[in-house]
Design a protein that fits this description.
Bound molecules: 4'-deoxy-4'-aminopyridoxal-5'-phosphate
Helix content: 25-40%
Strand content: 15-25%
CATH architecture of the largest domain: 3-Layer(aba) Sandwich
CATH superfamily of the largest domain: Type I PLP-dependent aspartate aminotransferase-like (Major domain)
Oligomer: single chain
Number of strands: 13
CATH topology of the largest domain: Aspartate Aminotransferase, domain 2
CATH class of the largest domain: Alpha Beta
Number of domains: 2
């Protein structure tokens, strides 16, 4: 008899959070200014060849666009069906069943499950302890270290010197260091250039946030050509749909347009909403991303998020994830009229926490 599912899958669940329709969804850090217009134009004018034929094996058109945008060689770029897929491939290329992945937590909710999905052990190091001393992430000899920068859900950016210290301690033949730069367009310096010359550094990026293309599912990573090749072997062919690759490439080629404008607007509104939360006496973690983590107003993240949802606004609950261990909510930054709707719902909830709207 063959046992099914495999033993280490029994504790896994499907990814789940409340996605029931709501008037205003500020829960998933997607671009609240919409989709990149150059990508929309590609989709509008697509012809038969975009669908009837297979795409490039390894999305060469998209790799070329990333290369132009970031000024890195094409041989240093790998792509995938969302950066989830790129992370998944990177994990698999570095670690196997006997290995473990070190993750600074709280962080992106897929960082730990991705290890378990691939049959590896995942070990969490508290984010604050890791910030004090990056070598804590190397304890016990992980095969891969995952760090999110800016970090989701806290919005913090580990110092450049911190990353350098981690890379120094990991060495040229140590674990693969995976820097997730999904939110780097909103704050922080990129390590993409550095990754092209380092044998053990992979920098992943997504088109789902600043470029407004979450529905297309396109992500990429930058690494040394040899490392890139290993990640691509693990990924397999045909992962990026032809239309998605073309649309993402068009958006990447828009050097000084829509992304710059909407990121600037987002950064302005991020400060405004941080001010508004502070005014209401709610502690927050100063953010460099397109979201803000703040203390759950009623002290219980799940109940607070449910109450705000009943008032028409979805935010994401993070129990215990404030720096002092109290419950937190994360709100995605949006155009100001939408932030006003969020603040109105928050005020109504603060005024009568037991009552739902
Ligand atoms: N990394 C981080 C830090 C994220 O927050 C997300 C999405 N929320 C992803 C990766 C995955 O993005 P995608 O698969 O849409 O590229």
């Amino acid at each position: 008899m063959s046992p099914f599912p495999r033993q280490d899958y029994r504790a896994l669940t499907r990814y789940h959070f409340d996605r029931t329709p709501v008037a205003l969804d500020l829960s998933d850090n997607t671009n609240q200014w919409g989709a990149h217009p150059a990508a929309l134009e590609v989709l509008r004018t697509a012809g038969d060849d975009a669908l009837a034929r297979y795409p490039d094996l390894y999305a060469d058109e998209l790799r070329a666009a990333v290369s132009r945008r970031l000024g890195v060689p094409e041989a240093c770029v790998t792509t995938g069906c969302g950066s989830d897929d790129v992370l998944d491939s990177a994990y698999r290329s570095a670690a196997g069943a006997a290995d473990f992945v070190a993750v600074a937590t709280p962080t992106f909710s897929m960082a730990l499950p991705l290890a378990r999905m691939n049959g590896m052990e995942a070990r969490a190091t508290p984010w604050r302890a890791a910030l004090d001393d990056p070598t804590r992430l190397l304890a016990g000899g992980p095969a891969l270290v995952y760090v999110c920068r800016p970090n989701n859900p806290t919005g913090e950016v580990a110092d450049t010197a911190w990353v350098e210290a981690l890379l120094d301690a990991a060495g040229d033949d140590g674990p693969l260091v995976l820097l997730d730069e999904a939110y780097v367009d909103f704050g922080g310096d990129t390590f993409a250039g550095r990754a092209t010359a380092h044998p053990r550094l992979v920098v992943s990026r997504t088109m789902s946030k600043a470029f407004g293309l979450a529905g297309l599912r396109v992500g990429y990573a930058v690494a040394h050509p040899d490392t890139t090749l290993e990640v691509e072997k693990s990924r397999g062919p045909y992962k990026v749909a032809r239309l998605a690759a073309r649309a993402a490439a068009a958006a990447l080629d828009d050097q000084a347009g829509w992304v710059t404008r909407t990121v600037e607007a987002c950064v302005v509104n991020r400060s405004r909403v941080e001010g508004a939360l502070a005014q209401r006496g709610l502690d927050l973690v100063p953010s460099r991303a397109n979201f803000v983590l703040f203390r759950a107003p009623g002290g219980e993240a799940i109940a607070d998020a449910r109450a705000l949802r009943a008032r028409g606004v979805a935010v994401r609950p993070f129990p215990g994830d404030m720096p002092d261990g109290s419950d937190a909510l994360r709100v995605t930054v949006a155009p100001w009229p939408l932030m006003e709707r969020f603040l109105e719902a928050l005020d109504a909830h603060l005024a009568s926490p037991g009552v739902t709207g």
